[in-house]
Specification:
Elements: E1 2-7, E2 9-10, H1 16-28, E3 35-37, H2 52-55, H3 62-74, E4 77-86, E5 92-99, E6 105-110, H4 121-124, E7 133-135, E8 140-145, H5 152-160, E9 165-169, H6 177-191, E10 194-198, E11 201-204, E12 207-208, E13 214-216, E14 222-225, E15 231-236, H7 240-248
Parallel strand pairs: 1-3, 2-11, 3-4, 8-9, 9-10
Antiparallel strand pairs: 1-15, 4-5, 5-6, 7-8, 10-13, 11-12, 13-14
Helix pairs in contact: 1-3
């Protein structure tokens, strides 16, 4: 299976509309990939809190429509990263979209763990309540967004739902890049799953982004890692290795404690 992680740069001098057009072009360049993944809040910037209200879109707004067409034109499964969704009741959400190679919406995920403690996303946005998986022909994706990476129980829940490939769309800051790599590898090892973690490049509201998108196999081995700038990370991986790893080293069968999935 071939995945392409698009580590797009967010430039404050580039409009969201222009960046959408550029993202479409980058997706179109990935024809031949099975799965293409974009990062968190790339239309506006993950730390550009003051722009969230102005740049918020309805669920089926310009980002949804542009990404649906890009998926169909490129013929790829597309995890379109996330955007600022304005729900019908006015609540903002950090929402990810996944499209089929026909451009149909396969799934959406509202970020469960909001970052910021008592400011920013944590107070400006609503929290998602549903774990989301997406069945592809060769693997089942489990969806997570950025700060979610720090909460292992979410990933356990995704594995319990059948996920073998954990996809993390992020806008992770450079000052905590060591945590990004460490946590991504930990989620792969403890869940015996692939982790595809894609971040942004550039600077969001003065916060330098870590970049360093990474693909990790079920044994915790790094298959590919990007640098700090805008880059497309292409990697081939074998989804069958998940079952093989879990059979060779059946640690998941020894679990004694379980947590209910959020919202259940």
């Amino acid at each position: 299976m071939r995945a392409s992680l698009i580590q797009i740069a967010v430039d404050p001098d580039e409009s969201a509309g222009a960046r959408r057009e550029r993202a479409v072009s980058l997706v179109m360049d990935r024809r031949g990939a099975d799965l293409v993944v974009l990062p968190e809040l790339w239309p506006v910037g993950a730390f550009a809190y003051t722009a969230f209200e102005a740049e918020a879109e309805p669920f089926r707004g310009p980002t949804h429509d542009a990404m649906a067409k890009a998926a169909a034109d490129a013929g790829v499964w597309l995890h379109a990263g996330s955007f600022v969704e304005r729900a019908d009741d006015g609540t903002l959400y950090n929402t990810s979209l996944v499209f089929t190679p026909n451009g149909e919406l396969a799934a959406s995920y509202r970020k469960i763990h909001r970052f910021g403690f008592d400011q920013g996303e944590a107070v400006m946005m609503g929290a998602g309540e549903e774990l989301v998986t997406v069945a592809l022909p060769e693997t089942t994706l489990g969806l997570a967004t950025c700060y979610d990476l720090r909460f292992p129980e979410l990933f356990r829940g995704l594995v319990d739902e059948g996920a073998g490939t954990l996809v993390v769309a992020a806008g992770w800051p450079e000052r905590r890049r060591a945590h990004w790599t460490l946590l991504a590898r930990a989620r792969a090892v403890e869940n015996q799953s692939y982790v595809l973690a894609v971040g942004c490049a550039g600077t969001h509201a003065g916060v330098e982004q870590a970049g360093h998108s990474i693909v990790i196999d079920p044994w915790g081995e790094v298959l590919a890692e990007a640098g700090a700038g805008e880059e497309v990370l292409d990697v081939e991986f074998d989804p069958a290795k998940v079952a093989e790893t879990r059979e060779q080293f059946p640690a998941l069968k020894d679990r004694r404690l379980g947590l209910a999935a959020p919202g259940r």
